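Complex record, two chains
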Amino acid sequence: EAGVVQSPRYKIIEKKQPVAFWCNPISGHNTLYWYRQNLGQGPELLIRYENEEAVDDSQLPKDRFSAERLKGVDSTLKIQPAELGDSAVYLCASRESSGSLNEQFFGPGTRLTVL
Amino acid sequence: GNSVTQMEGPVTLSEEAFLTINCTYTATGYPSLFWYVQYPGEGLQLLLKATKADDKGSNKGFEATYRKETTSFHLEKGSVQVSDSAVYFCALRSFTGGGNKLTFGTGTQLKVEL
C-alpha cells in the first residue's frame, strides 16, 4: 500500500512569489493534516481536515496561506506571497478517522527555500 | 497549553552503547505519548507509543515508559546500531479542544559511529 505522497520534494523560489504543495493521503484516510517544520524544530500543525472540511485552522496564517481539499482526498497548500521566514519543510499526514487512537502517517515533506 | 521538552542534540554514541533520550511533557488531562523517528530525507515514522500511565511502549529494541508522576517518557535502547542514526521526536496527543492533535518536541539528533 502506498504511503502519503507529497510533491514536489524540493522547491526554491524568490520572496514574494507564490508556491503550492500537493498531498495525496493514504487511500481511505479521511483525516488530513498539514504541518510546518522549521529547521531544528518539531512539526507544528497548520490545518486539519475531516473529509473536505477544515476543522482546525487556528494556526494557519490566513493572510498568506490557504489550503483546500475539494473532494475530500488530495489537498493543496498554497503560500502567496512567500516570505523569507516561510523556508521550512511542509509535511502532510493522514489518518483513519474511525478510531480515535489511530496513528497519523506522514509523507516525506516538501522542503521550501525562499531566497 | 501542551508542550514537550526533550534533550538537545546531537547525541553521539559508539555502536552497541546504551541510549537514553530524555523527554518531559506538560499537558492537561491524560495525553497519549509517542516517539517518532525521522531518517534523512524521509518523513516521520511512529516508533512507539503509550496511551496511559505506566504503559511501556517498545519497538525495534527501543523502549519508553509513561511516567505520570514525573511527566516523563524517556526513550532507551540497550545497544544502538549505526542504522539507528536519525532524529527522534517525542510527542503527545491530547483530545482536549477536539481532534487528534500532536504536539512535538524539538527533536534530538542521534549519531551512532563504528
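Note: Chain B has a mean pLDDT of 92.
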